[in-house]
Amino acid sequence: MAEWIETMQQPVTTAQSEILVPPVGEGAARTTVAVFLPLHSWLTVERGAYIGLALLALVLRLANLGAHPLSDAEAGQALVPWRIYQGQAVDQVGYSPLVATLNLLSFLALGGSEFTARLGPAVLGMALVLLPYGLRSHLGRAGALATSVLLAISPTALYFSRTVNGDIGVAVGGLALVVGLFGWLDLHFSPRISKLSSSASTLYLAAGGLALMLTAAPSAYSTLVLLLGFLALATAVGGKGYAASAREGLAALRTRLVGLGNFGLALVGVLLAAATGLLFNLGGLAATADLLTTWLLGFAPFAATPGVYPAVFLLSLYEPLILLPGLFGMAVSLLRRRLMDLFLGWWFFGSIALNLLRSGRTDGEVLVPMVPLTLLAGLALGMLWDSLREEGNWQKEGILAGVGLIISGYAYISLMSYTRSGGVTFWLPVAGVGLFVLLVALFGIWYEWASSLRGAALAALVVLLVFTIASASRLNNPLFTTVAGSRVVDPRQPLARAPAAEGLPALMSTLRQLSSWQAGDPYLIDIIADRRLGPAVEWQLRRFPNVTWTDGLNSWPPPASADRSDASPEPARQLGEFSAILAPADVSLPLENGYVGQDFAVRAFWSPAGLRGQSLIRWIVLRTATSPVSVERLVLWVEGPQGPAIEAQEKTAGEAIR
């Protein structure tokens, strides 16, 4: 029906001899003849802008996507679909079924690699940019488009779209659920729009979003609890002016059994497909159920994960372009008191509270409050654009914005000078900001306050935009380059927490060379490895078929089992019978003389604790610091004749021959 309405709004040419007859009633027979619209009638400037933003988002998310090795958190997710792809058994819980399904599809199509492991989240990140299109009636056309721009360039959204995690699926599913649900309410109460096929499409979108959430990550239940709590509160105690639509809309949904049935069928279908990897991983249903248990256990004090920062800190550090306009949009929405406005405020403050209460929070849970905050920021930016278009005078606002940018440039240079040399230069950027505030006040007194505030907002918007682009570039691309030329994520980024270190690529190069020398093939070398090395090392060794994993090399060989039924059990191999041994650096092995070992840094750690004054400011602005990065190492042990091959490898900082 929505297609018919849009068709009727377009000029009909002589080539369009067939028309679509709208239905007279719900039970009446319908005569539908397809109408093929020309491209120019569908592709408006607004839709072209969304398509351009989607392409921009996809390029930003695919650029150098496989340039750095997977971290432990990423590898733990990627190993599950890799084992399914190889026909091996997998654990029933402890992973994201949605990520496993997406990775299984990408592995089947393109093979297993760092790029394909991150491809599914990257596509989800692009979908997140398109979803605000469905909220134009609530945010305004300019506000919805501004929201898409913010999501496309957001450092946080970009980072989690480029890592193997399920939290980006929660963000996409949650926003799709909200768009579909409020779209249903809009269609139900709009006298100009039919409630037949269009209402079904909104329910399908809501069902798909809910299915993505339930299979993505434990943080989905934070969004789901807040949404259900708001609907219950609105229908129970909401005032007639802004909550009647919620009460009557839900009542209509209960009475419209066909729509409710379609919603249930779509939910079950998408849920089964996303959870089970298109029925290739039936154990994904157990993993889906385990997400709720994991979310509940996250409130326990013992569930705290070291190095995971609260969402308030991360939003302040990475998203000032979203945070500051979002708080302004929050104030506006609370004054308007519309249903969507109140829900966004509830969603943001509730998710911040849950994030602080959950000691077992994950890094990706910052996306839960960031989504409603971005919608509020888009609302505020859309209001600014509409005000400039209708009342703005570029001679007034432009002059004030230009002066503000000049002062901002001077303040930035002075601040960087202070971080290097110290002294009284700290007061120069403070004085610059104070001078600009004084100019804004004088401009408002002499001319008009509206133009003055718009000019100041433009200057602040440009400064925050530059800061956001720089933060996104440092966090995502180009990546941190080590002294040996390896490309890894900078551990000084709080979102990265414990990224893979530069030793992993060097380790793989060394093993391939040793294997070629000894076995005549880059991957057939006989290896024994300690599982305590972590999922990142296990992912790197996935192509080596002759790897024996043990829970503790220091206790190898394992004791013979007393309940074995065979009379002559086969003795366990000794360590000296393996061509290569991979062990944690702090493990002492019972090796004979003649073995040589080399350290490899496999993961990095860094914390801003202890930064003060100049160093703290420089880290906040540039993410650089003089404090050293801590690394965790493994040791590759080989028998003496292979020693020259190890020594020939280029060693990175922190690696040494043993």
Structural features:
single chain, 658 residues, mainly alpha, 4 domains, 5-stranded mixed sheet, two-stranded antiparallel ribbon, 26 helices, 6% strand, disordered N terminus
Helix and strand layout, with pairings?
Elements: H1 2-8, H2 39-42, H3 45-62, H4 72-85, H5 97-110, H6 114-130, H7 136-139, H8 141-153, H9 155-161, H10 167-189, H11 197-216, H12 220-237, H13 240-255, H14 257-276, H15 284-297, H16 311-318, H17 320-336, H18 339-357, H19 367-391, H20 394-421, H21 427-446, H22 449-476, E1 480-481, E2 487-488, H23 503-519, E3 527-530, H24 535-540, E4 547-550, E5 580-584, E6 595-605, H25 613-622, E7 630-639, H26 643-648
Parallel strand pairs: 3-4, 3-5
Antiparallel strand pairs: 1-2, 5-7, 6-7
Helix pairs in contact: 3-6, 3-8, 4-5, 5-6, 5-14, 6-8, 6-9, 6-10, 8-19, 9-22, 10-11, 10-12, 10-13, 11-14, 12-13, 12-18, 17-18, 17-19, 18-19, 20-21, 20-22, 20-25, 21-22
How many alpha or pi helices?
26
Strand order of the largest sheet: 4-3-5-7-6
Number of strands: 7
Report the sheet with the most strands, covering strand number, pairing sense and barrel closure.
5 strands, mixed
- Estimate percent helicity: 55-70%
Low-confidence stretches: 1-37, 191-197, 480-484, 562-569
Return the structural class: mainly alpha
Shape: globular
Radius of gyration computed on alpha carbons: 29 Å
